[in-house]
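Why does residue order matter? Because the sequence determines the fold. Keep that principle in mind as you read this record.
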Amino acid sequence: MTGDMPQHMPRHMQDDMRDEEQEHRAAGGLADAEAPGKSASGGTTSGLLRALLDNPMVALFLRDGQGRYLAANQLYANLAGVPGKDVVGLSPRDIFPHALANALLDEDRRVAADGTPLLCERMLPDDEAERVLRVAKLPLPHEVAGPGAVLGLAFDVTALVQGEIEEEVRQRTAALAESTARFRALFELAPDAVYVRGEGGRIVDCNRAAERMSGHPRETLLSLRTADLLPPDIEARIDNLLTGCPLPSAIPPDATPQDATLTEPRQGTDNAGSANGFCPTGGFCMEGVCATAHGDHETEVSVEPLPLSLLRGEGMAALVVVHDISGRRAAERQARLFERVFRNALEGICITDPEGAIVAVNPAFTTITGYPAEDAVGQTPRILKSHHHDSSFYEDMWRALVGEGRWEDEIWNRRRNGEVYPEWLSISAIPGPTGRTEYYVAVFHDITELKAKESQIQHQAHHDALTGLPNRALLRDRLGMAINGARREGRKVAVLSVDLDNFKQVNDSLGHMVGDIYLQQAAEQMRQMVRPQDTLARVGGDEFVVVLQDVENERDAAQVAERLLARFTEPVRVQEHELFVGASVGIALFPDDGDDPDTLVRNADIAMSRAKEQGKRRYHLFTPAMNERAVRRLSLEGDLHRALAAGDITAHYQPRVDLNTGLITGMEALARWTRADGSQEHPAEFIPLAEATGLIVPLGEHMLRLACAKTHALCDAGHADLHVAVNLSVHQFRHRNLVGMVADVLAETGLPPHLLELEITESTIVTDADHAIRKLNQLAEMGIALSVDDFGTGYSSLYQLKNLPLTSLKIDRSFIRDIPDDPNDAAIAATIITMADRLGLRVVAEGVETPEQLNFLLLEGCHEVQGFLFSRPLPPEEFTALLARGRRLTVPRDWGGGI
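Structure:
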């Protein structure tokens, strides 16, 4: 039968007809293959079909161009789930699910249309499990089953596939186990700390590095949360990352791994996304500081969370990788520090490769050399060569660099503008990992100013700052060389010690500025008077030394001394002042007076001191006797210390007499030194020595205490209103505790302050007028009388006198000595008396020794006198006896030329 069965035929009749048709076709097909007139190919095909249909190992089916089964063996019917007799005439749509049936028919059409066989696998449902079929579809010729017919061969490979699956599972399981083992090994051996962060931040696993970095054992770490280890800000960002991950559906199919990586935490939370529990691999890197278990130090770390997927509803998890970046950070800080040092160093820095090509320079290099970096890089340091050094210099440099790896020394180089300058250069070889030199680093600084300062310091170390003359050190050096030359040539060397007379009074009266100008002028005058080969040096305030070379005898030195003295007899004008400052000169000769610099200078100084003692403004040659006197002076200083400590210095008293009444109104206390053997040391010997050594301060306090105690005793004996005058030296007056010391002595001795008179010199007043006025006012407020001693020898002005709380003036004995014979002294004395009278001050004349002097003073209106005419200074007991005879002394009067 070739036609379709009527669709209205009952089902059982249709079934019977199909069975009959199938049997007929099967029988007819086979018969047709043998009948005459059938083609050979047709017979062959039918035979093949018969063989295949009878093969119980192959499921066979034949479908026509409309998709109806033309034939199928029992095995195929069983696989399809229908009896074999029911398959013929049916369509796959009658047997299989719609989608599968359509797919089968589409394949049939492609095979028939293309004429190409098709091999595929199909899954067919079974009662317990699906069966796997491998199907081969072959196009059939038209003459066999009409156009579009397809022959299908199906093999049941379920068992085979199941075995393949099991093998694949086994292999994948083994690979997974191996991968897991590798991962665990890598996990444990990773240099970074790795934490598996679970729900709520709980640590569910960690590696060994985590134990080392945190300081906690694994057991402790598994009981902690990452929040217990990480800084709060980092923990918060991890939470944001895990709760803000997008769902897989939110990631575009064509997204790259970079698109799925979170570089910043989300601000909001997607509930759907967090419930899904999936997050793409990725995260962000954060840096911070973590404390260790013991809290003894902190570690700088980099933290990178890597999200993991968990089952839905169990929250998000992550691998938290913590990398110790302390070393990196330290290296970065060190690199930044080195960079700042390199950029900001005041020293020039030049880095070269082993061949000497410059690879880098710092800004200071440009500042010093003038070469900018772009012009220097690629060049060699030869661009700085000054040609001040020979080849051996550079050979020594490279020999040290190769042998020792460093070299430093002073070198002269040339700037870009051609200027040659000195620099201190240090070169170091920088070795690489193999030990071979990779770079040379040269560090240098310009020492031009240092050289200038060294020269200046050298000059200052050997020259006087005020006058520019050689100082004592350079004098000693030059004098030594002069002595050595004179010793070889058999000649003499003269040393002149020059001291300016009364220069101290210039300083005290007019100030140090005027004094300094005068010293500069005096030095220039003396410089012009010596030869170029000679040396003029300043060795003290107003002390100079002249070294004369190639001197024949002492006469040559004396002539130079005379010229110096003559020059200093002339006045010198400083600002508005005309100064008369003389000089005294001492001379010593080599080899007569010494054979070394120190001895010659000392002996010349001794001779100069002798010239001063003999009246100043003269020169004196050194003699051995002078040296003996200098030795005695040194001995005297030691004796003075001991005498003061032992109380061997006592006070003698010279009375002061009122010219109108003849009464002894008071006395002046004068220091006297009596040695243990009864010998006397003259005040002119030990008082200047005390001034020079500073002993004048304790000596002055000692004299004040003796005088006040003696006067208080005389008052108690009935000599009321008897006042005592005590000298204050400049050193005493400048002492910071003078007023306190005087108050203490008055309190200790009980002497009323108004009975004490303190005598000061004019130089004391003019040194620091404001300070002197303040101190004198303090003493005057205590009730103490104040007097100016040796008036007329200084430079005090009437303005100063007007502002001082003085009670009297004392005319110096130098003006009294030649009265009345010297009209100048007489005029000066008369002027002082008149001036004092106008100022309301009493006048006391000291050193009165003749009636003529007394008569002159009496006629001029002088108030009081003291001197040998009335009494020499008396020891305490003799002065007490004098007062006991009566306090009135006879005042000689010569009104008519007689006494």
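Residues 1-42, 246-282, 310-314, 895-899 have pLDDT under 50 and may be disordered.
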